[in-house]
UniProtKB/TrEMBL annotation:
InterPro entries: HTH_MarR-typ (IPR000835), MarR/SlyA-like (IPR039422), WH-like_DNA-bd_sf (IPR036388), WH_DNA-bd_sf (IPR036390). SMART domains: HTH_MARR. This is HTH marR-type domain-containing protein. It comes from Williamsia phyllosphaerae. Residues 1-136 form the HTH marR-type domain. SUPFAM superfamilies: Winged helix' DNA-binding domain.
Length: 136
């Protein structure tokens, strides 16, 4: 595939995701999360350390630190000593953080469902299949 086609596919995907997120950002903010905090909070279960989060989300480490401080101040995240390495602290999502994340995910899902409704059932299944194939 020529680079221009790959770049166009990437751009279209990015535009869809950005528009969906921008549309639901005010509702997500209403439950207590800024957009980037939402993504950080959503990755903590898979990435227990700030450096891992920065790498996964392609964000600068200082930015992740700011988002984590905000999430801690809101009571959505706490740091605890890592039982496997007592010199390190790992991140844990609090029950309040879990509840808030679930609310935000419902908001995002509802908005994305509106976009997906533009596709029929077979097109939605094909889109899911193709995206899953790219991740394998």
């Amino acid at each position: 595939m020529p680079a221009s086609n790959a770049a166009r596919i990437w751009s279209l995907n990015h535009q869809v995701l950005t528009r969906v997120m921008n549309e639901c950002a005010p509702d997500i903010e209403a439950v207590g999360l800024e957009a980037k905090e939402f993504f950080v909070l959503g990755e903590i279960d898979d990435c227990r350390y700030p450096a891992e989060l920065a790498l996964r989300l392609a964000l600068p480490k200082p930015s992740v630190t700011v988002y984590l401080r905000n999430l801690e101040a809101k009571g959505f995240v706490r740091r605890e000593i890592d039982p496997d390495d007592l010199r390190r602290h790992r991140l844990v999502v609090t029950p309040s953080g879990i509840d808030t994340l679930e609310k935000a995910l419902k908001i995002l899902s509802a908005r994305f469902d509106e976009w997906l409704a533009r596709l029929d059932t077979s097109e939605q299944a094909e889109l899911q299949r193709l995206l899953a194939k790219l991740l394998n």
